[in-house]
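Incident log, structure service

09:12 report received: a user says their structure output differs between two submissions of the same chain.
09:20 pulled the input from the user's history:
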Amino acid sequence: MTPSRASYLAQQTLGIIMGGGQGTRLFPLTRERSKPATPLAGKYRLVDIPISNCINSGIARMYLLTQFNSASLHRHMSQSFKFDHFNGGFVEILAAEQTFSNTSWYQGTADAVRKNLMHFKNNDFAYALILSGDQLYQMDFREIVQAHVEKSADLTIATLPVPVQEATSLGILQMNGENRITRFEEKPKEPAMLESLRLDRDQYGPLGIQRDDDLYLASMGIYVFNRDVLFELLNNNLTDFGKHIIPGAINTHRVFSYVFQGYWEDIGTIRSFFEANLDQAADLPKFNFFSPPVYTRPRFLPASKLNGAAIDHAVVADGCVITNSRIQYSVIGVRSVLQEGAHLNRVVMMGTDYYDTASRRSRPEHRDIPLGIGRGTRVENAIIDKNARIGDGCVLTPAGKPENFDHPLYYVRDGILIVPKGGVIPHGTVI
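09:34 re-ran on a clean worker, output below:
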């Protein structure tokens, strides 16, 4: 693919990013925000990933479809992505809205796109690239669009080889020797059906797969549609791409697979979110935020200040103040404050939206506890959501608790303790 050809295809592509549903499996992180607005790796948001992938691929026209708890997502978008007035690029939010012809909320991914077709039709584009707003991966979208064009495809689906333990929770497909999709099953559970969907080992070589275990081709929820095909396939009342649109299209249109073999993580559960964040503290993280760069809101914060600390494998974001603390395998978000003697082990601390003041601390609901982690407090295997206040001499750990548990001060999900956004833990609390 020549650079000029790649640039042309990118200019002909419209990005459509799905803002997600209620994100119930990420509760309580989604109690006050939409799933794509969830903080990631100290200073980012999940939605920064697909937008950055588009920017790095030369795709400058994007729509973000939102519905649930979208205020923080809208605020982040308005402060983060502003394009040159003369290049025609934009990231525009399309919130669910009532019209004279439709008064319902989005009923699924296909329904969300259908209800916004009137906005998309105002753009001159040849290809629609539909993306999820809550996945962690890096992909040059010019390559999937190029493959789509070369195959004369009507619809191309990005796919990922996965082992059997992951196949039951994803949409699994089969393809022939030309990569044309011949079958699609959404979250197959029956052993016999799974066996019939297994990827033929004769295809490993042509696809460049060097693994030796049984694999299945899973849909990544990334689709490239020809403009007219998108409008045609949505000219009905079907609500979901994976459950309805794609299985039907296989029999009537040229539907192809684009096999991707890089790192990809669907941030669908508290456990997957926790582990994906902590992976950034590893020697060589699976996901690279450095090159190509991931873009986010410019905050212009001061550099972090360490007044004595023992740090072993950690990510420390901008504007933090850490005093004589011990940090192990943790992610410390923007503006975090750790008081003397704090000890964090396997902690995702999302930071704060502002620096503390005496007037904020003196509010009755804050109990005169400063933002951040108090003196001599120990936290392990936990997520500390934004603007949390944890007092002095506390011990926070999920050890000995059920896998899933609700408490007025905290939650446990997937064996991970979570202090919710704005949560307050009194001095001396032992969990």
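09:41 both user submissions now match this output. Likely a transient worker issue. Closing.
09:42 reviewer note: The chain has two domains: 3-275, 302-425. Residues 302-425 form a domain with the UDP N-Acetylglucosamine Acyltransferase; domain 1 fold (CATH 2.160.10.10).
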